């Protein structure tokens, strides 16, 4: 990449998945290949339930960073004077922008890297933690990683078809919305019958952080 379009960067705690509660710098890239982010396009999008604003560069520290070193330096500055810096690259779809140069810049600064992706893009080598959240009706090219996080339910995506993919952890995350109580109960019921799966909740929404 000649530059990186970033919606926002902020220090927080990881709110989902196997690393929930961990201190992390969230690096949210602008743009996605499954939805424009505009409400008028939601009904025809490949992903219609996204709850994240990834459009533009007007969030906290949102900017176009000119190169990998500038962006990595910003992440390190936000981490502050603490050991073992950790960045979660998200979006939108971060793998539209994350490249070898950025991973190398993070590694040069001792930053552990994680990515949350929809699985339709091939990642560069060297990412420490890969979380794939597949979306029904899309072509998933990334079927390996550390955790598979399936937003539940998704007609057209059966957990039984995903359990043989090459992941260390398999998570069901109830879809947020007006039916959350029902989807949560459904996910719990499925996991009780299929213990290879675990429940992932959006803890950050419960405790009031981003």
UniProtKB/TrEMBL annotation:
The keyword Nuclease does not apply. S-adenosyl-L-methionine binds at residues 49-51, 92, 133-135, 173-176. It is an enzyme of class 4 (lyase). It catalyses: 6-carboxy-5,6,7,8-tetrahydropterin + H(+) = 7-carboxy-7-carbaguanine + NH4(+). GO terms for biological process: tRNA queuosine(34) biosynthetic process. Keywords: 4Fe-4S, Iron, Iron-sulfur, Lyase, Magnesium, Metal-binding, Queuosine biosynthesis, S-adenosyl-L-methionine. [4Fe-4S] cluster binds at residues 32, 47, 50. GO terms for molecular function: 4 iron, 4 sulfur cluster binding; carbon-nitrogen lyase activity; magnesium ion binding; S-adenosyl-L-methionine binding. Its EC number is 4.3.99.3. Binds 1 S-adenosyl-L-methionine per subunit. HAMAP family: QueE. Homodimer. Belongs to the radical SAM superfamily. 7-carboxy-7-deazaguanine synthase family. PANTHER family: 7-CARBOXY-7-DEAZAGUANINE SYNTHASE. Catalyzes the complex heterocyclic radical-mediated conversion of 6-carboxy-5,6,7,8-tetrahydropterin (CPH4) to 7-carboxy-7-deazaguanine (CDG), a step common to the biosynthetic pathways of all 7-deazapurine-containing compounds. This is 7-carboxy-7-deazaguanine synthase. It comes from Sphingomonas montanisoli.
